[in-house]
Amino acid sequence: MKGRVKGMDEKNTDYSAKKGALLEQGLISPQALELITELETELSFLRKQNESFRKALRVKSAQSPRMSTKLRDALYE
Question: How much is the average pLDDT of 33-51?
Fold first, then answer.
């Protein structure tokens, strides 16, 4: 996705792989698995929300006129 931090999908894949490995080894209790699932759901929601905020910010910044640095410096002197 445009504007997305590189590596976010890679991190998600790494987490899934680590979770899978721990499950295969039987090192995750049912309570821990439930917590991990809840955290994955929350992470997914927050990523979508973050992308939505970024999109809204891009739209908002495109609408507002930008002041040149020379003009800004002159106004603040």
Answer: 94
Task: Tell the residue number behind the tokens 């698995």, with chain if given.
Answer: 33
Instruction: Give the count of alpha carbons within 13 A of 12, CB side only.
Output: 13
Identify whether the C-beta of residue 1 lies closer than 8 Å to the C-beta of residue 51: yes
Tokens 């410096």 found at: 73
What amino acid is encoded at 43 in this protein? L
CA distance 30 to 38: 12
In degrees and rounded to multiples of 5, residue 7 shows phi and psi of 100, -10
3-state SS class at 5: coil
pLDDT at position 4: 52
**């917590």: which residue's tokens?**
35
CA–CA distance, 56 with 59 (Å, rounded to integer): 5
| 32 pLDDT more than 80 | yes
